[in-house]
Amino acid sequence: MLFRPPWRKIEDIGEYAETLGFEEESYLDLFQAVMELDKKYRVPVLLFYYERYSTAEIASILKMPEKTVSTRLFRAKAKLKNYLKEE
Questions:
Q1: Where is each RNA polymerase sigma factor 70 region 4 type domain found (predicted)?
Q2: Contacts of 56 (CB under 8 A, 6+ apart)
Q3: Which residue has the higher pLDDT, 68 or 30?
């Protein structure tokens, strides 16, 4: 699987979504919502849910406590839930 760092600007979000295997409209909507998150939430979400890293691995990569990673994942899920309810 190709991993493009989420902090790098992505020109074509559809192309990146296809790289990750998203083809259905509902998955594309979710992916679009993830990409609209602030960087501090987006990066852990991409690493955890799309790249399948553990919270301990993400903490090591991002040089932050594991609890911070867990908190950001929790808050990101809440933001995504609200975003998708609005649509």
A1: 30-80
A2: 66
A3: 68
